[in-house]
Write a structure and sequence with these properties.
Blueprint lengths: L9 H10 L3 E3 L12 H4 L5 E9 L2 E10 L8 H66 L2 H30 L3 H13 L4 H4 L9 H43 L7 E3 L1 H18 L3 E6 L5 E3 L1 H18 L9 E8 L3 E8 L27 H11 L3 E5 L7 E8 L2
Helix pairs in contact: 3-4, 3-5, 3-7, 4-7, 4-8, 5-7, 7-9, 8-9, 9-10
Length: about 400
């Protein structure tokens, strides 16, 4: 309404933007293709030149010039010089946008790293709190066997959780965010003449490619840390469930819910995965598709983690590269059968009758709680746990049977 819409010849600017071509009017007082433009119709401009600002075919703006005193003010020499100025202006605009993008990426990465470190600290604190609550609850209950069994199960999960946490700490410590700081410092140092600094023959010519590669690496690192945090969350959830199981153990109650046994097996393997990989164990899965069934999933998970942990230590007697652990899931229509088979040290004949006795163990640092508590949990689920072996050096097969209904 105040006339600001006509302070520039918008028809010329729109044409340059659409066609990516320059417009040169030697004498604006004579008829020309843009005579109808309201700004030019005022007759103040004698010579007009409008150049597109292009960088690799990308339009970033326009350079508009006019002379109110002379016609044909923009001769070929001036046109060539102004064309170079427009090209440099396009490069400067692109560099300014690149610098802004780098600053935003740097801020986002710093924010993400701060968030990851905070979440790692929170998860560590939750682990310590869960362990403290577990010990306090065990003392309050006053059942030494129950407390020992639960602490054994938490120990299995804590081992994997601590290894997972150490892996995340090493990843954060090895982060190349410092390299990003160095690169942005170079940009800040040369912000006055970025075009020259990033020119093909200058020392900063490889900086954009380097920043792109560095951003890709940091994004990959961030995704890996997020996956590790997700695994840490599962560890903490299982520890919380073990504490809850202990609190309800005296009432022999079950917290049954519909679950997918294949998913439970995968969760148990995932919890022990870091330790299995460290021991060089090859994992084979033979999981038949089964419908979801109602069961106390944390008790089943507790049993599977114990069986996988025992198989892992039994495989230490085998040379690396020959350690194999096979997990099978099958059903005969009435019962579900989960088997954990290894090709490890096997079980002597004289030890088979004592395998599920409280306190019996064949490991030097064992406590004899794992198989005993697992057998009790299987009975509470209405199933049974068996362990078979053809003898020393011939491996073992642990079988958990559960009723389908």
């Amino acid at each position: 309404e105040d006339g600001t819409d006509h302070e520039l010849p918008w028809t010329i600017l729109a044409y340059v933007r659409r066609t990516r071509e320059h417009v040169l009017i030697g004498d604006a007082s004579k008829p020309h293709p843009f005579s109808s433009d309201e700004y030019l119709a005022r007759g103040q401009a004698r010579s007009v030149l409008c150049l597109p600002l292009l960088r690799q075919e990308q339009f970033s703006g326009a350079l508009y010039l006019e002379n109110n005193l002379a016609t044909n003010a923009f001769n070929p020499k001036r046109l060539a010089l102004l064309g170079q100025i427009a090209a440099q202006a396009a490069i400067s605009i692109e560099n300014a946008q690149l610098y802004a993008d780098v600053q935003r990426a740097r801020a986002e990465l710093r924010r993400s790293n701060d968030e990851l470190e905070q979440r790692v600290e929170e998860r560590t604190r939750e682990l310590k709190d869960a362990q403290a609550r577990l010990v306090d609850t065990a003392r309050a209950v006053g059942m030494a066997e129950v407390a020992s069994n639960v602490l054994h199960n938490v120990g299995n999960v804590l081992t994997s959780a601590v290894i997972n946490l150490e892996t995340m700490q090493r990843a954060v410590g090895a982060s190349r965010v410092g390299r990003l700081k160095q690169a942005t410092a170079l940009l800040v140092e040369n912000r006055g003449d970025l075009a020259s600094f990033l020119a093909p023959s200058a020392r900063g010519k490889n900086l954009p490619d380097y920043l792109a590669a560095l951003a890709e690496e940091l994004m990959t690192q961030q995704m890996s840390l997020l996956e590790d945090l997700d695994a840490m969350g599962r560890h903490i959830e299982h520890i919380r469930a073990i504490v809850q199981v202990q609190q309800t153990y005296a009432r022999t109650s079950l917290m049954a819910e519909e679950c997918d046994l294949t998913q439970l097996i995968d969760d148990a393997l995932r919890i022990q995965m870091v330790a299995l990989q460290r021991h060089g164990v090859t994992i084979l899965r033979e999981l038949a598709p089964l419908p979801r069934m109602k069961v106390d999933k944390h008790k089943v998970l507790q049993i599977l983690i114990n069986l996988i942990s025992n198989a892992k230590y039994a495989l230490d007697a085998m040379p690396e590269g020959e350690r194999s652990l096979r997990v099978r899931l099958s059903s005969d229509g009435k019962r579900v059968r989960i088997q954990v088979a290894d090709n490890g040290m096997g079980i002597p004949e004289e030890s088979r009758e004592k395998l599920f006795a409280h306190g019996f163990t064949t490991r030097k640092d064992g406590h004899g709680f794992g198989l005993h508590s697992s057998a009790l949990a299987a009975q509470m689920l209405g199933g049974r746990l068996t362990l078979e072996s053809e003898g020393p050096g011939k491996g073992a097969v642990a079988t958990l049977e559960l009723p389908l209904s």
